Amino acid sequence: MRYMRIWGRLATMSFAIQTGHPLSSFGYLLGKLVRLSFFLLFLAAIFKHTSALAGYSLEEAALFFLTFNIVDILAQLFFRGIYGIRGLIREGDFDYFLIQPLNVLYRVSFNTVDFLDVLTILPVFMITFYILKRMPGGLAWKPLLWYTLLMVNGLLIAFAIHIVVASLAVLTQELENTIWIYRDLMTLGRFPSDIYDSPMRALLTFVIPVAVMVSFPAKAYLGRLTGAWIGQAVVMAGVSLALSLKFWQFATRRYTSVSS
Amino acid sequence: MRKYWFVFSIYWQEGLSQRASFFMERFRALVVLVSFYYFWSALLKDRTSFAGYNYSQMITYVLGMNILRGLVFASRTYEIAGEINHGRLSGYLLKPVNFCLYTFFRDLSEKSINLVSAIIEVSGLALLFHLKIQWPHQATSWLLFLLAITGATVLYFFLSFIVGCWGFWTAESGGPRFLLELILEFTAGAFFPLDVLPRAFQDILKLFPSPYLVFFPLHVFLEKLNTAQIINGFLMEGFWILALGGLAWLVWDKGVSAYGAEGS
User: Fold this and answer.
1) Domain limits at A91?
2) Which of B25, B32, B39 to mutate to test the interface with A (most CBs of A within 10 A)?
3) Which of A137, A177, B52, B120 is the most interior residue, by most CB within 10 Å?
4) How is chain B split into domains, by residue range?
């Protein structure tokens, strides 16, 4: 409960900062919505010329794209603070967080809450709901449950990646660009993983698990994912989260303060 | 002009010294290239053509798209707003330089670095995947392509210079710039060829400057246009260069009059 209250306080502060720059915030918000609209328009236009993309219909391909957006936006919404960790270390704020009676990883992760993402994800949810209703079987609850669970699973993997990035920053006081490598690689999940050839698909499943985070939930909803793959996805999330937390402990133990 | 080539040289060296940022930017471009290569390959796997493009033409478009993104869209005009807002513009106004030319040559250094890098990436990918590129059959196509990309580079510079000058009136130009860049990239054909879009949408887009940034030059390269379409394209591109060049001059003139050198 205390942690929820702290999140609310940090979110309010972020909101105040964003509303302090209304024109800029509006531009960014509109930009995010325009990008979403253009990609949906692109997909719809593609399906005027073809009936399938790697065996998927327009609604199914759109589901992959929207799932990518949901996971990507939620990860930004909840773990946005990690993006600024180098600044926190450089300015000495990280040292201040270390002495607060609060989990430091929690404090860093939620230091910034991007409200533009809250406004962006609402239309994404609405379009996803519309797409799911347009599927041949309509909105089915059991697949929807698997879809939701695997998206949460994808978010856990995203969190593990963010923790590794934060740990690297604590260890080296550099590598702030690492998070952008993750963001760029995530865009490979915009389309169904079936468009890639076998080596690339293996890379996106086992090495950089973009497919597990983004394609697996959509595939589970479409009934194209076996129980074994679901089990593997859950194990991957558990192992990556455990290892990233270990790495975080390792990094923070070796932190010797930089500027405070 | 010699001093502007010095500007070019200095920023070229600076660009190469910031290796982490440079490699990040190129990595980002490479991911876009790889994802669209696989996307179009999947679509053209079981068919001979798609929206009027055969496999070789589509792959050439995707590779060319990456090179033109590196050349046309690479810019440092985003720095202008900061220079105005923090008063650093005063330093340039006191020097015997034309600020517009100065920023153009600063942009050229960024563009040339990205161009060389994009050509290396595309060549690497073409060799790795044994891609067949459709080269122009006629020498005039090469000349027209060079002319079209030169125009596209100047056109984008004027557009981004105008956006940079918003800094004269607001300290919040970041968001609007992000929005404009996104719209420009999509409507320029920098993610996909515009012919896949509905006809009415294409006709509307062609009235705006953006298709002349990537889509038109690549169509010239692929020799998909007849003589009348080429002439029409160049006339439109020329019109937009003149119109936006004039607008850039007007905005700069009004902006400098309103400039208060705050923060300097």
Assistant:
1) 2-253
2) B39
3) A177
4) 2-258
- Say whether A34 and B34 touch across the interface (CB within 8 A): no
Taking CA–CA distances from A196, the nearest residue in chain B reads B38
CB contact under 8 A, B20 and A177: yes
The interface residues of chain B toward chain A in range 13-42, judged by CB-CB distance below 8 A, are 20-21, 24, 27-28, 31-32, 34-35, 38-39, 41-42
In a domain, A259, yes or no: no
CA-nearest of B55, B57, B77, B75 to B65 is B57
Q: What is the mean pLDDT of residues A74-102?
A: 87
DSSP B49: E
Task: Give A159: exposed, middle or buried? Use CB within 10 Å, 0-12, 13-18, 19+.
Answer: buried
Please state the rounded mean pLDDT for residues B223-239. Answer: 96
Per-residue pLDDT tens digits for B115-166: 999 999 999 999 999 998 999 999 999 999 999 999 999 999 999 999 999 9
A residues 172-191 lying closer than 8 A (beta carbon) to B: 177, 180-181, 184-185, 187-188, 190-191
Question: Cα distance from B54 to chain A (closest Cα, Å)?
Answer: 13
A56 exposed, middle or buried (CB, 10 Å; 0-12, 13-18, 19+)?
A: buried
Measure Cα distances from A151 to A71, A132, A211 in Å: 7, 15, 11
Q: Which two tokens stand for residue A232?
A: 């593997």
Q: What is the pLDDT of residues A177-193, one digit of tens each?
A: 778 888 888 988 888 98
Give the helix/strand (H/E) hosting A169.
helix A141-172
Across residues A244-248, what is the average pLDDT?
96
Residue, of B59 and A180, whose pLDDT is higher: B59
**H-state helical runs in chain B:** 2-17, 19-43, 55-72, 78-85, 89-94, 99-128, 139-164, 174-188, 199-205, 215-221, 227-258
Residues of A in contact with B179 (CB under 8 A): 27-28, 30-31, 34
CA distance to partner chain B, nearest, from residue A156 (Å): 23
The C-alpha angle B131, B23, B116, rounded to 5 degrees, equals 55
**Cβ contact (<8 Å) for B172 and A23?**
yes
Nearest to B175 among A23, A184, A188 (CB): A23
Which residue has tokens 């999509």?
Answer: B186
pLDDT band at A260 (very low <50, low <70, confident <90, very high): low
Domain count for chain A, please give it.
1
pLDDT at B13 over 90: no
Distance CA A63, CA A21 (A): 34
- Shortest Cα distance from A141 to chain B (angstroms)? 31
Structure ipTM = 0.84
pLDDT digits (tens, 9 = 90+) for A24-67: 888 989 999 999 999 999 999 999 888 888 889 999 999 999 99
- pTM above threshold 0.95: no
Which token pair is B140? 């005039």
